[in-house]
Amino acid sequence: MVSLRIVLLSIFLLSSCAKVGYVFEQGVGQFSLLMNGEDNADVLKDPKVKEEHKDKIRKIEKYKKYFYEYFERKSTDIYSETTMLEGDAVTYLVITSPFNKIEAQKECFLFVGCFPYLGFFKKESAKEYAKDQEEDGMVTYIRPVYAYSTLGNFEDKILSSFFHYDDIGLAELVFHELFHTIFFAKNEVDLNENLANYFGQEMVLDYFKMTESQIIDRKEKRQRNSDLSQEIVNHAKALQELYKKSPPKSREEGERLLKEYIESVFKPSVKEKCSELGIEEKRCFALNRKWNNASLAAFLTYEKSMDKIHLLRSSKGLSLKEFFGYIEGEYEAYRNSTSKESFETWFIK
User: Fold this and answer.
1) Rounded to whole angstroms, how far apart are CA atoms 255 and 99?
2) Is the separation of the CB atoms in 140 and 16 below 8 Å?
3) For helices 17-35 and 4-14, what crossing angle results, to 10°?
4) Positions of the chain with pLDDT under 70
5) At what angle do helices 320-335 and 189-207 cross, to 10 degrees?
6) Which 3-state string (H, E, C) describes the chain?
7) Are strands 138-145 and 107-109 parallel, antiparallel or unpaired?
8) How buried is residue 2: exposed, middle or buried, by Cβ count under 10 Å (0-12/13-18/19+)?
9) Phi-psi region of 247 (alpha: psi -120 to 50; beta: other; left: phi over 0)
């Protein structure tokens, strides 16, 4: 494990002052999470902690035990302590995009690779960064995050933000985050997330011993969300083509083009799609949020990768555990190859 001190020193020597300041603040935030953690056994004995929250902690411990036994991996100290947060979210992601294209700008860091966003433990810092980016002509989108993984670099804590989830949502979240502790492909942010999503969703079906009808209902709901997300992707691509054909010369011109497209094309089309999928208009999230280049860029990473993962597993006829072994084998072969393509392209052909 690379120590935080070495990471900070290396980035200090090789990066801009702004990036050094960012890494330092995140280091302080991570250190705070680590230091403020309290052993689960002590939290469970604390009379000041709500019983419903204690129940969540007990369930997380059961989910963790199930996960490592399922994959026959040695359990770690992850989630052995709990940190009570001051706010609802643990961090806030800021995605930025130019005013004349839909493209999430990447930030790269030594050792850990590149990411299409920056995360901030402090909401105020996220807003300040977004404001600076806006002043530089960028378009921004801030999204709260209720859980995240340090990918094995630190022993992650149970966060009080987890307690907002119901039992099934909590189990899926824990399985998702624990998956990052047993598999991580460098510089493959989207694939890592899609794989963690897939394994989290599939493990929930086994853990709760869902009936065939329950499984069908869950998969149909996911398919509706998948279809709606793809509709957004299609519109993001269509708007991207408009930007290419008639490049906005100013931020104001770009905003006018965006607004016209959203009102005259996007909303009518999405409204029709939600109706087709049987989603009530008031529950159609795509109609009830503000869209810009940055928030649309977040959807461009979707591309039905989850469906491709499912189809790949089905074509191999593998159990979930066997499929994981297959992924590990493919990644090892990829790392030993001279391929210039991404692992996702190598893996999902």
Assistant:
1) 8
2) no
3) 170
4) 1-34, 109-113, 151-154, 301-305
5) 160
6) CCCHHHHHHHHHHHCCHHHHHHHHHHHHHHHHHHHCCEEHHHHHHCCCCCHHHHHHHHHHHHHHHHHHHHCCCCCCCCCCEEECCCCCCCEEEEEEEECCCCCCCCEEECCCEEECCEEECCHHHHHHHHHHHHHCCEEEEEEEECCCCCCCCCCCCEEHHHHHCCHHHHHHHHHHHHHHHHCCCCCCHHHHHHHHHHHHHHHHHHHCCCCHHHHHHHHHHHHHHHHHHHHHHHHHHHHHHHHHHCCCCCHHHHHHHHHHHHHHHHHHHHHHHHHHHCCCHHHCHHHCCCCCHHHHHHHCCCCCHHHHHHHHHHHHCCCHHHHHHHHHHHHHHHHCCCCCCCHHHHHCC
7) unpaired
8) exposed
9) beta
Delimit the domains of the chain by residue range: 4-207
d(CA 295, CA 323): 33
Q: How much is the pLDDT for 2? A: 33
* pLDDT for residue 5: 37
Structure-token pair, residue 120: 């901030």
pLDDT at 77: 87
Q: Are 26 and 93 in contact (CB under 8 A)?
A: no
Please give the model's pTM, rounded to 2 decimal places: 0.74
Residue in the structure block whose two tokens are 């991404």: 342
